[in-house]
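Tokens in:
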């Protein structure tokens, strides 16, 4: 009897191995695939990326995050600059990041702040968005090369809510500096050209009746060129159920002046102007709005420059549907943490795989014992 029992035991062990080993390999590979998909793709940059100012001038530089494939919930940046050339006056966080976790802290040669979206994960950043505006003062003229404002990548961090990104993983992929040229008040940059050269060669013959020579023209007064609206983006999405809270981001530029006002029309009978953080040749203002009623609304933005000219309008259609009635249990409120996390599907799959392997081993052992 021992011979058949031993055969059954060996056979049972072989069957268990044939089942457990492929299951284990499958779920390990699944977890590795999920981790390999977590690719940092967020970029930080300055706007404008180049600027020319005079000694003593104050000017604004906006910091923008492009999330790429990530879903940004937290940004901490530390910027560096030459304290002999520039002084950071203040740092104003954007309304897209309502939660200030650290700072702003301004020192000689650096400025830092940590910002988050708060407990509402629907406000996670999925499109290029302004993070903050830093006001600088020009202290001394630059030499042959512009003075640079850069990101300290060792102390700069971007976190994501994407299921393919690991908790606490820095998804920052790339940064771009800003070049600032500073000149003194007696310098002219660029050198203006006053009309066409006047030919002062005397006319060899005079007409019988002397005529008045034309007054040399000192250039032609240029007409103020209207600014240009280059885009309007809506995040997190341009559609949803009422009440629908959105962030509208406009982009505009002016080739011969400064943009002083951005006018947002939400299409539902409400409008609002933005003037803070502007007075630049290139701007990306943002504003939040909640649609209370259902329907399709044409949201627009236009820009006004310091000469009073108004740009073309950029338009996006916002679709608001009726609120859906839910009967299921109410989800627990999200905690106000620097980085809300979403459950990763890879962890659940691994737990299920291990539990399945254990159950198979137990059932096989019971069968062998019964035999």
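Residues out:
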């Amino acid at each position: 009897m021992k011979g058949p029992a031993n055969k059954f035991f060996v056979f049972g062990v072989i069957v268990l191995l044939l089942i457990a080993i492929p299951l284990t390999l499958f779920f390990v590979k699944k977890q590795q695939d999920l981790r390999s998909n977590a690719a940092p793709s967020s970029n930080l940059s300055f706007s404008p990326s180049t600027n020319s100012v005079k000694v003593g001038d104050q000017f604004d530089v906006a910091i923008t995050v492009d999330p790429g494939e990530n879903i940004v919930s937290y940004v901490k940046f530390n910027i560096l600059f030459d304290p002999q050339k520039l002084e950071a006056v203040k740092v104003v966080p954007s309304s897209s990041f309502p939660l200030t976790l650290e700072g702003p802290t301004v020192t000689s040669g650096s400025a830092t702040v940590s910002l988050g979206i708060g407990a509402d994960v629907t406000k996670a950043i999925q499109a290029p968005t302004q993070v903050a505006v830093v006001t600088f003062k020009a202290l001394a003229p630059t030499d042959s090369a512009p003075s640079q404002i850069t990101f300290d990548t060792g102390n700069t961090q971007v976190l994501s809510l994407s299921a393919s990104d690991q908790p606490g993983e820095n998804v920052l992929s790339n940064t771009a500096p800003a070049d600032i040229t500073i000149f003194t008040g007696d310098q002219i940059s660029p050198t203006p050209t006053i009309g066409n050269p006047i030919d002062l060669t005397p006319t060899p013959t005079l007409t019988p009746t002397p005529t008045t020579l034309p007054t040399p023209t000192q250039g032609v007064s240029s007409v103020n060129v209207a600014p240009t609206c280059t885009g309007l983006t809506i995040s997190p999405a341009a559609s949803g159920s009422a009440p629908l809270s959105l962030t509208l981001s406009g982009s505009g530029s002016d080739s011969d002046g400064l943009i002083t006002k951005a006018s947002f029309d939400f299409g539902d009978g409400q409008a609002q102007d933005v003037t803070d953080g502007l007075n630049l040749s290139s701007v990306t203002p943002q504003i939040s709005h909640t649609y209370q009623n259902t329907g399709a609304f044409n949201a627009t933005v236009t820009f006004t420059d310091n000469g009073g000219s108004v740009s073309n309008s950029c338009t996006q259609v916002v679709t608001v549907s009726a609120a859906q009635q839910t009967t299921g249990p109410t989800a627990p409120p999200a905690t106000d943490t620097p980085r809300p996390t979403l459950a990763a599907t890879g962890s659940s799959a691994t737990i299920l795989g291990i539990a399945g392997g254990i159950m198979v081993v137990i059932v096989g052992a019971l069968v062998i014992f019964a035999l």
